[in-house]
């Protein structure tokens, strides 16, 4: 298998097999599951892509972390 789009230790990740099959893996409090349905895996991949586009860069993250203690 190729590398996951997210670390395996994350609550969810997507994988692409050598045969070009896309798989998903998800963990929750109720258990974990391997997802092979292409529609569900596609939804997972789109959600992850959306999160990546909204993620802060390192400078923004540091600024947020510096502000948080004063706001608590």
Task: Sum this structure up briefly.
By secondary structure, the chain is α+β, with helices and mostly antiparallel strands.
Your description of this structure?
This protein has one domain (12-67). Helices cover 43% and strands 24% of the residues. It contains 2 helices and 3 strands. A 3-stranded antiparallel beta sheet has the order 1-2-3, with helices on one face. It is elongated. Mean pLDDT is 82; it is low at 5-9.
What would the keywords be for this entry?
2 helices, 3 strands, elongated, alpha+beta, 72 residues
> What global shape is seen?
elongated
Domain count, please report it.
1
State the low-pLDDT regions, or none. 5-9
Give the integer mean of the pLDDT values. Answer: 82
Task: Give the N-to-C terminal Cα separation.
Answer: 44 Å
Number of strands: 3
Q: Looking across the biggest beta sheet, what order are the strands in? A: 1-2-3
* Beta-strand content estimate: 15-25%
Q: Kindly provide the radius of gyration, computed on alpha-carbon positions and rounded to a whole number of angstroms.
A: 16 Å
Q: How would you spell out the order of helices and strands? A: EEEHH
Outline the biggest β-sheet: 3 strands, antiparallel
Structural class: alpha+beta
What portion of residues is helical?
40-55%
Tally of separate helices? 2
